[in-house]
Design goal:
Blueprint lengths: L16 H16 L3 H6 L1 E10 L5 E2 L1 H14 L3 E10 L2 E13 L5 E14 L5 E8 L1 H10 L8
Parallel strand pairs: 1-6
Antiparallel strand pairs: 1-2, 3-4, 4-5, 5-6
Length: 153
């Protein structure tokens, strides 16, 4: 395990995963507070963000910031954190997206979609790649119930 990582907030040079965990804590605040600037600032300039829902990856810090602006405007989702695993240059997060929607009759319902994030981090402590996987059956059922066609999420 490498120990020369220079992550901000790193507390123990004998355990680089602690730096990744501290980065995650700051990063998650950006998502919880729906702050595209904070999220983008923790990504590398050449970052890649890919929600594996059939859409193309978002490439670059500014493109990611704009993507987050759009997502937050469309979906008032919240999180239920399940499990997290930290390594020297990555983390894996299992979580549930909780999303209030209305069905095709206009009745409110709460969609719950299991999610998995796989995040790579560089030596500077920046997110270089984030892949987000969603439970396909749960997301398709929720969006169909809301009358949202595939590709319009």
């Amino acid at each position: 395990m490498e120990t020369d990582m220079a992550f901000p907030g790193k507390t123990d040079p004998a355990d680089p995963a602690l730096g990744t965990e501290a980065l995650f804590a700051r990063y998650h605040v950006g998502w919880e507070t729906r702050d595209p600037d904070r999220i983008a600032s923790l990504h590398s300039e050449d970052t890649s963000y890919w929600l594996h829902d059939g859409s193309a990856p978002v490439r670059g810090r500014e493109a990611l910031r704009q993507y987050c602006v759009g997502v937050f405007a469309r979906y008032p989702f919240s999180f239920e954190l399940r499990r997290s695993l930290f390594g020297a240059r990555h983390w894996v997060l299992e979580w549930v997206m909780v999303l209030p929607l209305k069905d095709t009759a206009g009745q409110p319902f709460t969609a719950r979609v299991e999610m998995l994030d796989v995040v790579d981090v560089n030596d500077a402590g920046e997110v270089t790649r984030k892949d987000v996987y969603m439970n396909g059956a749960q997301s398709q059922a929720a969006f169909a119930r809301a009358g949202i066609a595939p590709g319009q999420q």
